[in-house]
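Protocol step 4 of 6: structure prediction from sequence.
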Amino acid sequence: MCHFLYGDKAAMLAFLVISNVLWFSVLVSWVFTFIRGPGIMPCRIPPYELSNFIHEGEKFKNVKNTDVSDEKSDISSESSLTVPLNRNVIPPPDIFECDYNGLPFWCSECSTLKLLRCHHSSVKDRCIPMFDHFCTFVGSTIGKDNFGFFLYFLFSMQTLMYFTCISIIVYSGVWGHLHAALIVFLITTGFMAILVGNLAFNTVGDIYLGQTTIERLQRTRTKKKIAKSQSNENDQTDLGEYVNVQHPTNRKLRVLVKLLPSDKPYNNGFRKNLRLWYTDFTRLGSPQQILMFQNSMFSEKFKESISERINSGNYVIFGSQSKLQSSSPSHLKIKDM
């Protein structure tokens, strides 16, 4: 490129300075993304103590339309999470994601609860908090600790590619005669710019919606499976998503609420989502800290939505049945079964 700008020393100097600054930015962000790594679950989180809630819920197994309380529900933003020492189980928080039986997700490889939106990484062989994806482009798993550097890397790389393409077009006479080597270079750089741009666009979109890449892909696959199961009358598998919530007036009971396709449990607004990913380097070292941080990730809007559904009777008493059932996969309206 500099060969074609040799006649214009000012343009050549500007190109060299800007391109080297951008390359340095790309290199530094890649190094920090790779070296810092995604982070790992700092400690093992024992199972929740749910046996008493299951026992209480079983009392409602054969009782239809029984009102536990007429009072309105309100899911508090502050949960009283106290982790006892030297115990094999811990008290459950006021709200947590669960399977259709109301049980929290468990990693058998790490022998820990899957909190902090973590998933087990086959590359790291550990659970990764806020696991996003494994990026072959940078050669590292992307998670809570290095997501900010990864985002900076994407924008640095994207800016460098756009700058390179524009420089070639402006200073190499693309409307006239263009050297064959620059044509190949322009096509290659343009193609890479499209790929990186698509990744950056999806990443910003996920931040805006308060979701990770793997959460988006899992929800997309779930929607496809639900649509497929609807077309198969013999397939009664429930493939929805649920939250297990402390009953608002009866502390002995917990309820299960089915999530809707429009639910975004962790969407706290773009600024807070970005702050969580980009500037929050909170070091979590104990189950107490992890539980409190996990609970703080749920948005107030989502909690209010769950409270409204509980008030309108769209829930199931935890322990009252082994599996949630409804006529529509996207809507649950079963009360105290």
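Step 5 (inspection) to follow. The CA atoms of residues 154 and 201 lie 10 Å apart.
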